[in-house]
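Page 37, continued from 36.
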């Protein structure tokens, strides 16, 4: 494989897929490096796309992300966006786009290859080669051994800002981080029985509180089960209240997001290991509770579970740091290159309930290009949850819709910088904005 590129994207997750596609489509010789044997990151663990629309049903994310959705629909693995009142706040409209992870893996892979992007799986970045304020190359390790790759522009989509950290880019101070979760899939669930129990007001043993309705997709009085998104709380064996959400695309299968482990530092191997062990135990306990206590789950079984999902870790200090007030006020920046719309969603670092703060008038906010530019480096960009943002602002900017939008902006910026013979930090933002708009991004 050629080891000299114009753009290298580290991380082929939710942001990285869109980033690399954008860079390659805009003419840059691009490589995406991914530690697993598939693309998608968090997207392939069972979470639907959130943040594609605002609280008033206005679309805020299109471009390559929408093309990915359309391609998955053609493969029979994705549905139209579902809308409904949210259990978080009756005044806020909620939307999601359910899809099948295996279809995502295939479509994302094909989109990258069609764009002319090279893919390197099963590879970890282990070091950087820096000259002053320029990143010249990265060192990687895989089954072929140690290798070095060079590029004109690098984009960090690792989630943990691994490349930026190795380059000694300053990081946002962290007094607390959101808790972590594992998603798991249950099979042989009798959804009709489950919904019938809710419709009839039947009590469910072990539940402290149940928001007694389907909030997305089919209503409780519908004869057609269809895709659903449910939310509630129950008391686990340790007496702590646990949030429960379930998403279903296939009739008798349900993806469940219910586990919570606090203080998992994904940048520390021991902490990450301990978090994974804790989460596996949580999955075991919750599966047993579902089978023992919830109508429709009596004969269900665990199909699979994800690696531990990290909501927050490192965030760079960029040319601008997105603030809580920027989000809640729906601020519009002159150098806007992406949009976010999901409420500030904080999974309590101490293990309590998840809190939500909503954007003014159910609208959206803009993400400035400066949030993707690490301080002190000319040819390094970031996209995804490691952008320059405060703890509160990350609570919304980490959502998949916003991550994909950042990715299209970062990938396009990198390619334009290469074409123009400038560093991304010096790129004319108006040219980037015009290009994004022409390519159907909403900024």
């Amino acid at each position: 494989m050629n080891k000299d590129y114009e753009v290298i994207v580290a991380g082929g997750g939710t942001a990285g897929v869109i980033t690399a596609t954008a860079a390659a489509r805009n003419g840059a010789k691009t490589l995406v490096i991914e530690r697993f044997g598939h693309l998608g990151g968090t997207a392939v663990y069972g979470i639907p796309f959130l943040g594609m629309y605002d609280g008033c049903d206005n679309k805020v994310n299109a471009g390559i992300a929408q093309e990915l959705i359309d391609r998955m629909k053609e493969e029979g693995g994705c549905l139209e966006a579902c809308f409904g009142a949210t259990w978080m706040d009756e005044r806020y409209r909620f939307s999601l786009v359910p899809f099948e992870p295996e279809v995502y893996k295939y479509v994302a892979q094909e989109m990258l290859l069609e764009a002319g992007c090279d893919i390197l799986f099963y590879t970890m970045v282990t070091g950087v080669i820096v000259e002053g304020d320029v990143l010249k190359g990265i060192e990687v390790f895989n089954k072929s051994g140690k290798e070095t790759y060079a590029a004109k522009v690098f984009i960090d989509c690792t989630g943990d800002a691994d490349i930026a950290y190795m380059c000694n880019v300053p990081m946002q101070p962290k007094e607390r981080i959101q808790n972590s979760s594992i998603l798991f899939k249950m099979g042989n669930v009798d959804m009709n029985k489950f919904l019938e129990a809710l419709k009839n007001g039947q009590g469910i043993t072990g539940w402290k509180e149940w928001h007694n309705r389907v909030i997305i997709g089919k209503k409780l009085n519908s004869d057609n089960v269809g895709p659903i998104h449910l939310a509630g709380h129950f008391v686990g064996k340790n007496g702590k209240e646990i949030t429960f959400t379930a998403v279903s695309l296939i009739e008798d299968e349900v993806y469940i997001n219910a586990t919570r482990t606090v203080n998992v530092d994904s940048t520390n191997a021991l902490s990450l290991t301990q978090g994974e062990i804790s989460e596996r135990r949580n999955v075991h306990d919750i599966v047993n509770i579902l089978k023992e206590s919830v109508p429709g789950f009596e004969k269900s079984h665990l199909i699979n579970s994800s690696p531990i999902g990290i909501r927050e870790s490192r965030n760079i200090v960029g040319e601008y740091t997105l603030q809580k007030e920027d989000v809640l006020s729906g601020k519009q920046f002159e150098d806007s290159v992406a949009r976010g719309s999901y409420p500030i969603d904080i999974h309590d670092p101490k293990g309590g309930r998840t809190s939500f703060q909503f954007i003014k008038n159910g609208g959206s906010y803009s993400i400035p290009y400066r949030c993707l530019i690490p301080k002190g480096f000319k040819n390094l960009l970031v996209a995804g949850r490691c952008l320059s943002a405060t703890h509160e602002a990350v609570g919304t900017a980490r959502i998949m819709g916003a991550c994909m939008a950042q990715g299209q902006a970062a990938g396009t910026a990198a390619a334009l910088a290469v074409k123009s013979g400038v560093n991304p930090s010096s790129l004319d933002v108006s040219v980037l904005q015009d290009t994004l708009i022409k390519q159907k991004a909403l900024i």
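The chain has a mean pLDDT of 88. Flag for discussion at group meeting. The domain at 4-83+96-176+312-438 is CATH 3.50.50.60 (FAD/NAD(P)-binding domain).
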